[in-house]
Automatic annotation (TrEMBL), chain A:
Family designation: Belongs to the actin family. ARP6 subfamily.
Stretches the record annotates as Disordered: 1-25
Keywords assigned: Activator, Chromatin regulator, Cytoplasm, Nucleus, Transcription, Transcription regulation
Location of this chain's protein in the cell: Cytoplasm; Nucleus
Coiled-coil regions, chain positions: none
One GO biological process term: chromatin organization
Gene3D superfamilies for this protein: 3.30.420.40, Actin, Chain A, domain 4 (3.90.640.10)
Name of the protein: Actin family
GO CC field: cytoplasm; nucleus
Superkingdom per UniProt: Eukaryota
Species of provenance: Neurospora tetraspora
UniProtKB/TrEMBL annotation, chain B:
GO cellular component: nucleus
Protein name: HIT-type domain-containing protein
Protein origin, superkingdom: Eukaryota
Bias (Polar residues): 133-145
Region (Disordered), start-end ranges: 78-97, 133-288
Biased composition (Acidic residues): 199-208
Domain HIT-type: 330-357
Biased composition (Low complexity): 146-177, 237-254
């Protein structure tokens, strides 16, 4: 449904010169990925800005990228403008954007009236939130033109086949068919994409994301070791450092069991290659945790106070139980299917003829996919759920966190961007509801 | 606990609710009846409504729910972090437009927005009166609005499930209605000359459906000229009248420009045009033949690619009926995380073995007493 057909093009020709630079913003719940793209030059990778207001234990407040200056992350508290993947609190979001892009001394200074904005959003947003977003972009900042698109879809504009290492001669842009799994801070979504158009009836969401996993690890640690509930930053760091996706859950669980009373299990005592010691930051000499191989006895001694200089946690099944939530959310009582069943449910909404293409082109992005073994586990789980004849390929780009941004940067140079964008003039002429409808309609069909 | 042996059973909070209620006896539900008097032991085990459920008491259910809510929160304590004042002097206080001011001051959470949206959907659905009222004028307006080539596309969209179009309508209407949430200020936006969209809002609040039917012919005549994408702007007034059918047609409005952009019988996914793989002697072997499912027709693809987005709750993955109890829920030891093989008699929590059971008992005693 190309809402802006002949009429739109004409008005743009009559209006001011179209902007040459584009600000591409992947406004995630945890971090903003931001960079400029213009016709000839473009940032080859985005700047990653923490999307939060943070307060340390001395009650000093850090906004966005100021967090880099922070050393001591103990008892850090966060306020995030993005909730469930959608920008909800504009007061905080505006403050962060202002400081990063629009203030005089902003690190990525940009003049909105001469810039095009490409902003990502999560699929299936609420209309009211979308309207808020459009109104802020045009009425507060006054961007020259703007497109707000579903984040996962932008990945189609990357060179997908090189991620799969498929030999090829030509690069399709957008990719003909991919099944994109985006596992981020707030949730995990499955989006089938055909020639850069999301197949909306088949988009599915699992409400398990990095935040839930960090909180779950916090709970496990608080029950078994120390009370870590006021240390979200430290626990998150620990999660990223030690958690892995188990390829043999039952076996690993067996290896990490201490056994019945009095039983001395060999695997438990030796750690079986799974147990790791994690040295917590002490806020004096070192400010980041350190992972060490498990040394039998160290943590026990530390607990008794013999070696009291450092706090050591021995992590055993915590290491793989946490990412397991993506595959079996029912483990903690979430009544939702795991990520592999998510794929299945998504495909069931589509004609079978599309299955082979989608299954052979599964791309995983988002921070959770960085956990070791994630792709392999996902591939085996998906294989089990589909006919033998379907070939299943799961690939993760080298940079799963910035992948959406890189895709969006390619999109900014693509002819589709000029078809989809809305100029400020059009917004003022037709209103927010029209803009929302145009964005919802997307590319429509053209081939 | 020296209450002269009196044990307080009910909690303090329930005092303003009566301890009993008349409940209509509608007879036994099939599941309950089967549980009371199973016909056959085997079948009773199989036919249980929800295999996972009997394991859970209401108390455990509540605990799980509470735990999940805690896991979903951003921080353990609710952090109220104010926005720090600017370091280098105050930023020029540029004036916000009313819309922006409203958005910036809004303290709504995502849950609030979601509730609003749900309420709106419910309203749109439970208003068949309005729907019937505006049902008649709609065909005429569409006929006037849409130039000849668009008839094909409107037909194709009609083929789509009515649910989908209804949803689209609701979404579009909600988008428009979002602007007037929290009682938008009428006076301000009327005095404000530059922003037309705001004026649209005001029309919505005042004028009812019959009025919107009147201006539409003029608009249609005025705008079916060269630029066919124009009939959109006046639409919001119609779409906000909380009526599924009118809005359903309005959502198809952007389509008039579409048919020119693709050939009516062109294939959406082009055929494979690269060199075929090198032949292999086993290619004709009947045992090695793989069956390729029929490729979806263009019409199917077209419908899929232009389908409107699902709503937030529709997109949430859920177990289907048959999958719900297919595999038993895995239970873990609440202390150490190994399989939960033993149940605490008192509270039903799972633990793995004696050692963990003892650790659990301490907590259990604190929480529930002896």
């Amino acid at each position: 449904m190309a809402g802006g057909g002949g009429g739109a093009r004409k008005s743009r020709a009559a209006g001011p010169v179209p902007p040459t630079t584009t600000l591409v913003l992947d406004n995630g719940a945890d971090t903003i990925k931001a960079g400029f793209v213009s016709d000839d030059t473009s940032d080859d990778k985005p700047r990653i800005i923490p999307n939060c207001l943070a307060r340390d234990r001395h009650r000093k407040i850090y906004v966005g990228s100021e967090l880099e200056k922070c050393k001591d992350f103990s008892e850090m508290a966060f306020r995030r403008p993005v909730e469930k993947g959608f920008i909800v609190n504009w007061e905080a979001q505006k403050e962060i954007w202002d400081r990063e892009f629009f203030d005089d001394k902003a690190p990525q200074k940009c003049n909105p009236s001469e810039t095009r904005l490409i902003l990502t959003e999560q699929p299936n947003s609420l209309p009211s939130l979308q309207t808020h977003c459009d109104q802020i972009v045009f009425e507060e900042y006054g961007f020259a033109s703007y497109y707000r698109g579903v984040g996962p879809v932008f990945n189609a504009y990357r060179d997908i086949q090189s991620i799969f290492r498929t030999p090829q001669s030509t690069i399709d842009s957008p990719a003909e068919v991919i099944l994109l799994i985006d596992s981020g801070y707030s949730h995990t979504t499955v989006t089938p994409i055909l020639q850069g158009r999301p197949l909306h009836p088949a988009i599915r969401r699992l409400d398990v994301g990095g935040k839930l996993m960090t909180n779950y690890l916090t709970r496990l640690l608080s029950v078994r070791h120390f009370d870590m509930r006021n240390e979200p930053y430290i626990v998150n760091e620990m999660k990223e450092a030690v958690c892995y996706t188990s390829l043999n859950f039952k076996g690993d669980l067996e290896k990490t069991w201490k056994g019945t009373r009095g039983e001395k299990r060999e695997d438990y005592l030796s750690g079986a290659g799974i147990a790791k010691d994690y040295v917590l930051p002490d806020s004096h000499t070192h400010f980041h945790g350190v992972v060490r191989d498990y040394e039998p006895g160290v943590s026990a001694r530390a607990r008794k106070g013999i070696v009291s200089t450092e706090d050591v946690l021995t992590l055993r099944n915590e290491r793989f139980v946490v990412p397991e939530l993506l595959f079996n959310p029912s483990d903690i009582g979430i009544r939702q299917p795991g990520i592999a069943d998510l794929v299945k449910q998504s495909l069931l909404a589509l004609p079978i003829g599309l299955w082979p293409g989608l299954l052979a082109n599964i791309v995983v992005v988002g921070g959770n996919s960085l956990s070791e073994g994630f792709c392999q586990r996902l591939q085996t789980e998906i294989l089990k759920r589909f006919p033998d004849e379907c070939r299943v390929r799961v690939a993760r780009p080298e940079d799963p966190i910035t992948s959406t941004w890189l895709g969006a940067a390619n999109f900014a140079k693509h002819e589709h961007a000029s078809r989809l964008e809305v100029t400020k003039q059009e917004y003022e002429e037709h209103g927010a509801a029209w803009v929302a409808r145009k964005f919802a309609a997307g590319l429509g069909l053209d081939s | 606990m020296n209450n002269f042996g009196v044990i307080e059973v009910a909690s303090q909070k329930t005092k303003n609710a009566p301890g009993w209620a008349y409940v209509p006896d509608t007879g036994l539900t099939p599941a309950a009846a089967a549980a009371l008097q199973p016909l056959n032991r085997k079948r009773a085990a199989r036919d249980k409504a929800n295999v996972g459920a009997p394991d859970l008491t209401a108390r455990q259910d509540a605990k799980i729910r509470k735990d999940l809510e805690a896991l979903d929160r951003d921080s353990h304590r609710d952090a109220q972090i104010p926005i720090p004042p600017k370091a280098g002097g105050t930023r020029a206080q540029n004036k916000h437009t009313p819309n922006v001011r409203k958005i910036l001051q809004s303290q709504k959470t995502f849950a609030n927005h979601l509730d609003d949206y749900q309420a709106f959907l419910a309203l749109a659905e439970s208003n068949p009166q309005l729907a019937a009222q505006v049902n008649k004028p709609t065909p005429t307006t569409t006929a006037r609005n849409s130039p000849a080539p668009s008839t094909i596309t409107t037909a194709s969209t009609n083929k789509r499930s009515s649910a989908a179009s209804k949803r689209a309508a609701a979404t579009a209407a909600a988008a428009a209605a979002a602007k007037e949430e929290k009682g938008g200020s009428n006076k301000k936006s009327k005095t404000q000359p530059q922003s037309k969209p705001a004026d649209d809002d005001d029309d919505v609040e005042m004028i009812d459906a019959p009025d919107t039917a009147l201006p539409s012919p003029n608009i249609a005549e005025a705008t079916t000229g060269p630029d066919s994408s124009e009939p959109l702007p006046p639409r919001p007034s119609a779409s906000t009248s909380l009526d599924p059918t009118t809005t359903a047609t309005t959502t198809t409005e952007p389509e008039p420009t579409k048919p020119q952009s693709y050939p009516p019988d062109g294939t959406i996914l082009p055929p494979y045009n690269r060199p075929p793989p090198t032949p292999h002697p086993g290619d004709d072997d009947p045992l090695l033949i793989s069956r390729v499912p029929p490729f979806p027709t263009d019409e199917e693809l077209r419908a899929l690619m232009t389908a409107p987005p699902l709503s937030y709750l529709e997109a949430r993955a859920q177990w289907t009926e048959e999958e719900e109890g297919r595999y038993p829920v895995r239970r873990f030891c609440e202390v150490c995380g190994y399989w939960g093989r033993v149940k605490c008699i008192k509270c039903g929590a799972r633990v793995c073995a004696l050692e963990c059971l003892e650790a659990h008992r301490e907590e259990c005693l604190v929480r529930y007493g002896l």
